[in-house]
Amino acid sequence: MLRSNVVPPDQTNSPSAAEVLVALAPGPGTLRHRLEDALLEAVASGRLAPGTALPPSRTLADSLGVSRWVVTETYGHLVGKGILEARTGSATRVAATAPAGPGRQDPPSRTAVRSGTGGATPEPEPERAPSRATYDLAPGVPDLRHVPREAWARAVREALAAAANEDLGGQPAAGHPAARAAVATHLRRARAAAGGAAGVVLTRGATDGMSRIAAALASAGHTHLLVEDPSWAPLRDVAAAAGLVPVPVPVDDDGVSVARLRAEADRTGARAVLLTPAHQFPLGSVLSDERRAGVLDWARAADGLVIEDDYDAEFRYDRRPVPALQGLDADRVLLLGSTSKTLAPAFGIGWMAVPPRWRAAVLEASVRRGPTPGPATTDQLALAHLLGDGAYARHLRAARGRYARRRAALLAALDGSLPGAWVGGIAAGMHVTVDLAGPGGTGPDAADVVREAAARDVAVADLRRYLAAPPARSTVLVVGYGNLPDARLEAAVRALRAAVDAAA
User: Which CATH class is domain 1-104?
Assistant: First the structure.
């Protein structure tokens, strides 16, 4: 759903934020056709009454996360149909005589003539990505409506135009030198990371990077990997697939317990640990200064390695982001990052800042993955361009503002609908935890709430999904707001409240 909250001063009859509601859900057809259908439906249902002024094309495009061209073409097409009317110096409005009725008809299915039969059979529809829930409260997903499509497309064109012939002939195991240099510069500026391009290895994402690290550790004789509990399960799984036994270490409001980390390391012989120091997933705590020092002291004494998953560290809203742990000891900390939270998972680009002693082993693991272990060279060059011209930084600034406002709105809505719940996590990232029992109270089981929520087209997670040894009962949900449209936020929380009531 879209709410336009910008009312131009010369459009006194423009719809308010609560009045312009346009559904642009994933589905068949181009973005322009889907927007046209959505506007036709809004006119036919009466949500956009005759004479209503529509938002300016730029405002609507920004709200939906599409190019302005999509909106201007749609407006123009509907003007031609008599649904909208446009006058010089005035807003585009719903025509006074706009007909009510069904939207644009989909074209007939394409057919393929089967040779020798004279008949025609429909071609199979291409497989599409599964659609997300109407009320997407799942954690770990960024705002897919605001992916910087135009900036990325421009970066691809300009990077490809500037690429030398040799750039297109192959792919170095660690990644293209220009892209590695751009990532190293970004990490120094944005994350206070140490080291230069020589230590950067480009990957297809954090999971891909973790699989290479795990393979390198296993080849070096490591048998166990200390992991936070709870934590992001896919990284534990790829470590286990490489032959490492994940060893859970509990987490509290100050991050991972260093005392338990030392005890589990002594018990199992583990000399490597996977952490999320800047913003623990999923509990949302920050590794305290004392514990940061304790982790590094342990790594030095044990001749160990700290793998720092920096998954959403650039999204901090109450203060500057916590600097990367890697910046304190680049010899003992390997920094792992990607664009999956800052851009979108589909980009498939990640990076590692690898300590000198581990570079050869990580590169060997990369080479074993095949002739093109990392993302496409053209994508690497596009990322370098996006970082170099400031477009990536501008996107992050805009995203931080958007997520900060959405988080505040979510907390207010939760306080109104679930006043007894306890919300946890610092002002950062794209998720919070919600304990339905509140401090010392009781509440429905989170698994029952997740099931009832799914029946209401609400996606939300049970904390037990991320625990190494889930308890029989839990009242804690992990609630994401990254991909939740602002216009659906209050309705999403109301639907979640209904699910909680049904599960009680």
Answer: mainly alpha
Is residue 366 classed as helix, strand or coil in its secondary structure?
helix
Q: Three-state SS string across 31-94, please? A: HHHHHHHHHHHHHHHCCCCCCCECCCHHHHHHHHCCCHHHHHHHHHHHHHHCCEECCCCCCCEE
Q: What is the pLDDT of residues 316-359, one digit of tens each?
A: 999 888 999 999 999 999 999 999 999 999 999 999 999 999 99
- CATH assignment, 394-503: 3.90.1150.10
Scan for tokens 């393929």, then name that residue: 112
Residue 179 · residue 162 · CB < 8 Å: no
- Mean pLDDT across the chain: 86
Per the model's pLDDT, the better-predicted residue between 179 and 81 turns out to be 179
Scan for tokens 């991050």, then name that residue. 255
Q: What is the CATH number of domain 149-391?
A: 3.40.640.10
User: Whole-angstrom Cα distance, residue 131 to residue 35?
Assistant: 17
First to last CA, the chain: 29
How is residue 481 written in tokens? 């707001």
